[in-house]
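Reply to thread "Modeling small-molecule complexes from scratch"

Following up on the discussion above, here's a worked example others can learn from. I took a protein sequence and the SMILES for 2-acetamido-2-deoxy-beta-D-glucopyranose and predicted the complex. Inputs first:
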Amino acid sequence: MRVLAFLWALGFLLNEAQAWSIKNGIFHNSIWLERAAGVYHRESRKGKYQLTYREAKAVCKYEGGSLATYDQLEAARQIGFHVCAAGWFDKGRVGYPIVKPGTNCGFGRVGIIDYGYRLNKSEKWDVYCYNPNAKECGGVLTNQQKIIQSPGFPAEYQDEQICYWHIRVRLGERIHLHFLDFDVEDDTDCLADYLEVYDSYDDVSGFTGRFCGDYLPEDIISTGNVMTLKFLSDASVSAGGFQLQYTAFNASLFSHNYTTN
Ligand SMILES: *[C@@H]1O[C@H](CO)[C@@H](O)[C@H](O)[C@H]1NC(C)=O
Ligand SMILES: *[C@@H]1O[C@H](CO)[C@@H](O)[C@H](O)[C@H]1NC(C)=O
Ligand SMILES: *[C@@H]1O[C@H](CO)[C@@H](O)[C@H](O)[C@H]1NC(C)=O
């Protein structure tokens, strides 16, 4: 059963080699290209499906962008942008871009899963924004080991930053995060500034933790070969920032004698 599923997946990967493939032992997918088309997905700080149309517009505007149009979303999708969460886009339309067919998402179809123009603009969804000039921070990291720092570290980070780091190591490896310094504006529930860690290739699934304040988070170990870190700072108050080191290790060693320090 497992083998069949794998072969099916492999067949799919070969068919969709452009958008979704294993290259140099690294699984490439949508988020890899997330910023390439200037389109990106956002959800409310309160969680999934919490934004009215008006709030959705405000989220994009806050970051200097605007709601993505259907054509921008489709252009992004064609180079591999895949998100399993319905969001507002231009003119009050709702939908999401699917590259890889799945039964849990997109009803097995690929394309823009289109919920149409919503008559009720008070409905709550996520949002798709467009901003080809978004601030540069974060990136896709494939080294076996690297230090990740908040923008400008060791100087204080700036207000209104949004950075995504997507870590991808070889298939069969896992990722060990070890925090070296941590000082991010403290507030209850970390709603102002925060660092989030996801045990997945995007910031939709695999939420592992949201961190702020000045205590050093404990080490975090991925379950697979990808992880996403998201740093967000709001419009006021910054702090010293953070740095952490990630290290790839062979997953097969983990169950036997791997220990964290
Ligand atoms: C519009 O959607 C909101 C949120 O789902 C709901 O509370 C409200 O009743 C809806 N209004 C109408 C007229 O259907
Ligand atoms: C992990 O270690 C095992 C056993 O030493 C080895 O067979 C395998 O090729 C290694 N995998 C990677 C990705 O290094
Ligand atoms: C785990 O054990 C193997 C064989 O006993 C050894 O080669 C390897 O270096 C060990 N790994 C760690 C992380 O201690």
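What I'd highlight from this example: Confidence is low (pLDDT under 50) at residues 1-34, 257-261. The chain has two domains: 29-130, 139-252. Questions welcome below.
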